[in-house]
Every structure is written in C-alpha cells, then in structure tokens.
Amino acid sequence: MAASALNAAPATIGAALRAAGLDPVDARMLLQHALAIPHATLIAHPERVLSDDERQRFEALAARRRSGEPVAYLLGWREFHSRRFTVAPSVLIPRPETELLIDRALHCFASDTQAAVLDLGTGSGNVAFTLALERPQWALTSVDTSAAALAIARENARALGIGKVELLHGEWYGPVAGRVFDLIVSNPPYVAEGDPHLGRGDVRFEPALALRGGPDGLAAIRTIVEQARGHLRDNGWLFFEHGHDQADACRALLAGAGFVDLTTASDLAHLPRVSGGRNALSSNRR
Fold this sequence. Notes:
By secondary structure, the chain is of the alpha/beta class. The chain folds into 2 domains: 66 residues, no CATH class; 194 residues, 3-Layer(aba) Sandwich (Rossmann fold). The chain is 36% helix and 19% strand. The chain is built from 11 helices and 9 strands.
C-alpha cells in the first residue's frame, strides 16, 4: 500500500517520507542513505525531486524495513559511543545499553594505567575498539567464535585506524590459553531459549549465536565467570552485560567463583545491566 502511494505521489523528498509507511525517524535515515545526502539537506529541501534510481533505492529499503529488517543492517552501520561501526547480519547490532560496559571498564584503573584487556565475543568490535580508542595505552585482545563476525571487526578496525587490537578466532578462552589479563569484558549471549523477545523486532534478524544463552540464558555467562580467574591477574576485573532480570544470578555466580567487590550497574532505564567483580589474590584461586 505504501509503495503504491509513493508511486502515485510527486517524486519529492517530502512526498516520499509521507508515503513510506514507516516510523518517521526510520524513513528519514533510509531516505538520507538512499540519496547519500546529509540530514540537514534532507530536512531543508522537502521539495527536491528524486531521480528514478533514487526513488527505486528508497522504495526497496522502505519495503525491507516494513518487513522487519533492522535499520542498522539496511544502512550497514550503527553508532556506538559516538563512533560509527559497520554491522551486518553476522554481528549483533550495538545498543546504547552496552555503553555501560565501556563506562565500567574505563573506571577500573587510573586513566594513565597500562592494562592488558580481553574482550570475549567481540562481534563488530564495538567494545574492544572503543576501549582501545579511549585508552590508547591498553593492549586489547578480542575473541569470537564466528569468522564472519571477525571479518566485520577487521573492517571496523581499519575504518577506525586501529592497528594494535589482536583478533583471535575461537570459543571464549580457548585462543588465549595460558595468558592472563588485567581486565576481561564481554557482552555474551544471555537470552533464554523460548524467550518471546527472540521472535520480535530487530532480534529476529540478528545472529542466534550472539543472543541465545541456553535454557536460562546463563550458559555463556557461567563459562565466562567460572574460567575467568584463571586468566586474570591478581586484583584484575571482570565485567559483563546481562539481562535485566539476571543480576542476582550473575552476582551469585561471581561470588561462587571467588570474586570480591561485586558490583552491578543499571542502564538509563534503571534496569540492572552490567555486573562484575575483582579477582581475589592468587592464593585463593580455585
């Protein structure tokens, strides 16, 4: 219906936006992308006539969005921590909630401290590369079990001018056997199997590997927590993102693994979103 209305309307920016049948913000972003023009130009010139090619590109994008495809995948990027990251269906779309993980990590040490940092399940590299840019003296290692995700991460590393992040292919701590770090961070899969959110919205199009965390959503988190102390220096920190209803379970896992100074931080919606703790002395390691 929306496409036929667009075909009948004058081929202008304003008419295209009105006839798209989309959320206005989505429509503006997709039309700006189709026309390859700045947002200010789009808003200031609603009378501009679209060429046939421009109109067809926008119609195709609008149709895909109406079918549910995420805007980030249609654009090929998503902003995170004020930087643009390339994304594709092989990686999770970065979300504002994950910026809380960045904040917790940055406040672990004094700003001029050297640190070796491990990012587990790096995906697009948004967490690791943000930390590398915010703390150039840190040495970053990123691990992901998906070769396709690592290809996206390498693309982002090149685009952001990052040359010193180590990208490793493998599952969790497998590629870093025998190595220790000052800080471990992760945005692991934590959605429980059968959770109705898996069948709604953008999540339907995102990689299951980056979302599904087993029957209770905690399978990956258990692995990360239980093996973390073997890869952390004394007084090193572990922080990870989790579901809003998993904070108590995550803190219990951390305490059971011998972590101290446990902490949980809430996102802008006041939902508990990131938990972590400090590695006790090596004499207490399990």
